[in-house]
Amino acid sequence: MGKSLYIAEKPSVAQEFAKALGLRTRRGDGFLESEEAVITWCVGHLVTMSYPDKYDGSWKRWNLEALPFLPETFKYEVIDNVKKQFGIVAGLLNREDVETIYVCTDSGREGEYIYRLVEQEALKSPKKRKRVWIDSQTEEEILRGIKEAKPLESYDNLGASAYLRAKEDYLMGINFSRLMTLKYGNGIARFLKKDRCVIAVGRVMTCVLGMVVRREREIREFEVTNFYRVIATFGEEKSYEGEWRAVAGSTYFESPLLYNDNGFLKEEEAQAFIRQMKDLGEEGEIAEIKKTKERKKAPLLFNLAELQNECSKRFKISPDETLRLTQELYEKKLLTYPRTDARVLSTAVAKEISKNLNGLMNYEPAVPFLNDIKESKSHQGLAKTKYVDDKKITDHYAIIPTGQGLGALKSVSDLGRRLYDMVVRRFLSIFYPDAVYTKVAITTKLGEESFFANFKVLSAEGYLKVVGVPGNKEEEEISDNLEFFNYVQTLKKGMRLPLKNMVTKEGKTSPPKRYNSGSLILAMENAGKLIEDEELRAQIHGSGIGTSATRGEILKKLFSIDYLKLNKKTQIVTPTMMGEMIFDAMDKSLPSMLNPELTASWEKGLTQVAEGEITEEVYMEKLNGYISRRTNSVRTLNNQGVLLERYRQIATIYHKGEK
Fold first, then answer.
1. Computed from CA positions of residues 58, 59, 64, 68, in that sequence, does the dihedral angle turn out positive or negative?
2. Which of 75, 412, 509, 556 might form a disulfide with 416, Cβ 3.0–4.6 angstroms?
3. Using an 8 Å Cβ cutoff, are 38 and 111 in contact?
4. 79-133 pLDDT, tens per residue?
5. What is the pLDDT of residues 461-516, one digit of tens each?
6. What is the maximal distance between C-alpha atoms in the chain?
7. Are 406 and 362 within 8 A, CB to CB?
8. For residue 543, what pLDDT is reported?
C-alpha cells in the first residue's frame, strides 16, 4: 500500500499534523517520515512569476513604446533562496511509493496558490490529491480536515482566482510602474533632486495611497465655521440643561443667521436671542416628555479587519503586528484561522460550540462569564441568532478562541495575551442578553422656542458585563448619577419650571479625521468608505479592496517606499511629499487606479471566478483590455507642465512645515 504525502506551509504546522496523526516519524532533510506517511512543507512561496526579460531579453530595458507587456502564456521559476526545499518537495511528490497527496497549505486563496505553483512546476505524473481545509490547528480540527478532505479538483475555481489575482497584480504592476516611471519619473526625480524615481504602481496599493491623500487634502482645505449654541437651565434646587434648536414654529426656523438649526453664526445674534427669551418670562413649560428603552446587542465577532482596527485603537499597534500576534495565537492552537473576512459562525460550528466554551473553563478570567452562560443555557440557542449565518462565510468563519492550547499562553507576549483576552470577551459577549438603556427626552418651551434635553442611563448591563462599558462619546453622555436621573423621571408634561440661566456656548465645525492604521484597514474592507455601522458594512461584504490576508502587507509596503508615513505612537497615517506628487501624476494620467469602487470591483470579479460565476477567460480578456487602453492613453499625454505646477504647490505646503 502506498504512502500519503502531507504538504504543509510551515515546519511547525507539519509537526502539528504529525502529532495529530499519531505518527512515529524520523526527521529527514526538509521532511518527516513514518511507515505510513511523509510530511513536508513549503516555507511560504517556493515558485514565483518570471520577470519580462525571461520571455525576451529585450524586456530588460524599460521602453515606453514596447508597452504593454501582455504574454499569452506565463512563465514561472523557483525562488533562488528556497531552491533546496523546492527540490525536496518535488522529489517527494514524484516518489513512486507516494500514492495520495494531502494539500495542507493555509486554507485560503494564497495557500491554494502556493501549493498549485509547486505542483505545476514539479509533479510529473497525475496522482490522487486531496485538499485539507481547517479552521484551527487543534488536533480535533486537523483530524476532521483530513477525514473530510475533498478532491483538489473541488477547489479548482479558487485556484483559478488565485492565479488570476497574481496575474493581475503582476501585469498592472509591471505595465503601469514602467509606464508611469518612463513618463513621469524623471520629472519627479529632478524636482526632488534625486538621481532617479521609480514610480511603484499596484492595483490595491495605489488606491490606498489615493484614499490617504484625498483625506489629507480634505483636512487641509477644510474651513472652520464658528457657531454659538444657546443653553438654558431649568429648575430650582435640581435642574437640567436644554439646548435650543430652531425647529418648525421657531422664529428662526431655516434662518440664514444660523449654522444648521442649533447655533447662530454670530455671537451677538445669540446674545440678542437670549435677551428676547428672558423678556418672555422666567418660567419654561415642559411640552413633551418621552421615555424609551434602547436595546443594544453584542457586536458581531472579530474578522481580521475588525481585529486590526480594534488593536490599532486600543494598543496602538499596526495591522501587520496584529496579524503577527494573531497568527502566533493560531499556531499555538489558541485561536481559529486569522485571515478571515467573516464575522459570523457556521451552523456546524454553532452545534459544537460547547466544546469551545468548556475548554475556556481553563482560562480563569472567563470562568465567571462561563458560569453565567451555563446557568442561562444561552449557548443552546446560538444557531438562531445573527451570529450564525452560513451565507456570510466564504473560506472561514470568524476568529474565536478554540478553548485549547491554554498552556501555551504563558509563552505569549503580554500584548499577545491582551489580544487573546479581547477575542475571548468578544466571543463570550454573544451569549449574553442585550444591554438596555433607559432614555428620557424632554422638550421645554419658552414662548414658541423649544429647548431639548436628553438623558440616558444603563439600566441592564447585558453583554457589557463581559466587554465593559465603552468609553466613546455616546457612553460618556450616560448619567451615572441615579439620583439625578430619578429626578428627571419625576418631571411631567405641562409642569412649569423656573428659568435659572441662559448662556451661549461656542462650537466649531471639525474637519474629517485622519486615518489611523486600523481605520484604514476597515476603509479598505469597505471599498474606501469608513463605515462605522456594522449592519451597513455587512451589506457590502465582499466588495473590499484587497483581502484580509494582504491589507496589512500593502500598508507596510507604502510605508517602506516612503509614499505614506506612520506615527508609531498614535498609528495615524499621512502622505509624504513624494506620495502626494505620485498621487497627482496618477490622477492626471491613470485616475481609475485611484478609484476605490473600481479597485473593489476587480476583487469582486476574483470572487466571482472563485464561485464559478465567470470564467478565467472572461476575466483575462477584461484585464488585458483595461491595461492596453490605459497604456495607449497615457503614452499620448502631454501634461508634464501641469504636473510641475502641482509639484510646486505641494512643495510649498511641505516646506511650510505643515506636516
1. positive
2. 412
3. no
4. 999 999 999 999 999 999 999 999 999 998 899 999 999 999 999 999 999 999 9
5. 999 999 987 654 444 444 446 778 888 888 999 999 999 999 999 999 999 999 99
6. 101
7. yes
8. 56
Neighbours of 166 (CB within 10 A): 18
Residue 110's SS3 state is: helix
In whole angstroms, give the CA distance from residue 204 to residue 606: 14
Task: Give CA–CA dist 144/132, Å, rounded.
Answer: 9
Nearest to 101 by CA among 159, 146, 154: 146
The gap from C-alpha 302 to its chain's centroid, in whole angstroms, comes to: 10
| Chain centre distance of CA 647 | 32
Specify whether the CB–CB gap between 419 and 338 falls below 8 A.
no
User: Is residue 270 left, alpha or beta, with left meaning phi > 0 and alpha meaning psi from -120 to 50?
Assistant: alpha
Which residues lie closer than 8 Å to 71 by C-beta, 6 or more apart? 55
Q: How far apart are CA 126 and CA 192, in angstroms?
A: 56
Q: Which residues pair with 31 in a beta bridge?
A: 28, 40
Cβ atoms < 10 Å from Cβ of 455: 20
Half-sphere exposure of 175 (CA within 13 A, CB side): 28
Cell of 482: 441615579
Q: What cell does 116 get?
A: 498549485
Residue with cell 454553532: 350
Task: Tell me which residues of the chain have a pLDDT lower than 50.
Answer: 472-480, 530-532, 536-540, 659
Cis ω for the linkage preceding 68 (within 30 of 0): yes
Extended strands (E) in 246-353 = 258-259, 263-264, 283-296
CB-neighbour burial class of residue 479 (10 A; exposed 0-12, middle 13-18, buried 19+):
middle
